[in-house]
Amino acid sequence: MSTASVEADSTARTAWNPSTWRDRPASQQPLWPDQASLEHVRKILADLPPLVFAGEARQLQDQLGEACAGRAFVLQAGDCAESFDGVTADSIRDKLKVILQMAVVLAFSAGVPTVKIGRIAGQFAKPRSSSTEVVDDVELPSFRGHMVNDISFSEHSRTADAERLVRAYHQSASTLNLLRAFTKGGYADLRQVHVWNQEFIAASPEGQRYEKVAEGIDSALRFMAACGISIDAPELHQVDFYTSHEALVLDYEEALTRQDSITGQWYDCSAHMLWIGERTRQLDGAHVEFMRGIKNPLGCKLGPSASPDDVLGLCETLNPDRVPGRLTLISRMGADKVSETLPPLLAAARDARHPVLWECDPMHGNTYTTAGGRKTRHLEDVVSEIDGYFRAHGEAGTWPGGIHLEITGDDVTECVGGAEAISDDDLERRYETMCDPRLNGAQSLELAFRLAERLSD
Ligand code: PEP
Ligand code: CO
User: Fold this and answer.
1) pLDDT digits 0-9 by tens, 220-234
2) How far is CA 402 from the centre of its chain?
3) Do residues 43 and 371 make contact, with C-beta atoms less than 8 angstroms apart?
4) Are 263 and 293 in contact, with CB atoms under 8 Å apart?
5) Residue having the nearest C-alpha atom to atom 10 of ligand 1
């Protein structure tokens, strides 16, 4: 047995409850200056209703199990960091529209069922490479997401405020409420497929390509009806849409962890799926300890330093019963490293017969800063990492099960490239992200078409 397996075994044997993570080193936690306020907030959160139902998390896990077996593809997408400011029905709807459009392109062009998961309704906490930021010789705590502090550079804004955890809960609840209304109340009906094409996207080449797909769906529905096949099936009129975020601030996640009355198992009811970030995936760390005990489907990011032993340790600790769909490993290597760093990880899980669902995050390994000081990503680097990811899976005989993206429905200019050839200079026009650069609506749709081509190869 490798060292990682021995460690994983001893981890798995100890008893778990929602607070056992407190005995482990917890990195990336805010420095809460007011402990009394944190205690008060933890009690408030613990008394609030769950945001999701355990049965929904189980349903998602079953669908992820299908993807793990090569029978579906996962589209996980949304903001790098959601904001407390300016959240309107329109902004939530526009994000959903782009995800629905991308899913339609994948399902229609590649013929693969698509599992749809948003980075939404809870994606409010960010890990940082440095705990402080210096501007003009002034050093202040780094911005850690709206769940913790504010982005503006003043001592007051940057001080961690536990009351923000309650605000994150309520903001998640109202976002989720609208998403449920849209996806179950008729807006996501396949007969609305044209309506999802927003004006600024419709005018672009990929928007026009999408219109052709939409027309194809219209004629398929008309053809089915003409043949006397019922088009009343709920699958055509409703969509299953799930929520996810990085489980980073453990005081928040613990307070929303509840015992399911049906199975007696623990679920973190802050979202359907939770993931562990690249900076917090230490096997003996607090995040892995917390996540191993909750029954939601889990993700874990893997950067270029991840080793085959890391993969085996995570598999044995987070999915000891080898349940397909329980564990998604999300590689984020960078276009220039993926061909070298991913294959040994795929081989390790495959040879140990661990049912891993693999996802590719082609965003976080391809970020760079322009001469003008903007953090950006080039669409061609994103596609190039996806190509390396598909190639590695082809060679390993494993299924490239999904994609993990940072996107928005808005007409922003944060990532360069794409059919509209957004350049470094264009970044000044509409650079709105609070954290990492996101693909805009047209770039997201273009990526969906390019993915569909690869999936149907
Ligand atoms: C993220 O997904 O926004 C993120 C911080 O990713 P990673 O943990 O892979 O760096
Ligand atoms: Co990010």
Assistant:
1) 889 998 999 888 888
2) 11
3) no
4) no
5) 278
- Model confidence at 2: pLDDT above 70: no
Protein residue with its CA nearest to atom 1 in ligand 1: 80
Q: 361 C-alpha vs ligand 1 centroid, how far in Å? A: 9
What DSSP string describes 217-239? HHHHHHHHHHTT-----HHHH--
Cα 126 to middle of ligand 1, angstroms = 8
Q: Which amino acid is at 125?
A: A
Tokens of residue 321, six digits? 């019963």
- Residue 390 CA to residue 395 CA, distance in Å, equals 9
In whole angstroms, give the CA distance from residue 415 to residue 83.
19
Q: Closest ligand 1 atom, CA of 280?
A: 8
Domains of the chain with bracketed CATH: 3-456 (3.20.20.70)
Place of tokens 């809960």: 169
User: Does the pTM exceed 0.85?
Assistant: yes
| CB 301 near ligand 1, within 6 Å | yes
Q: Which of ligand 1's atoms lies nearest the C-alpha of 246?
A: 2
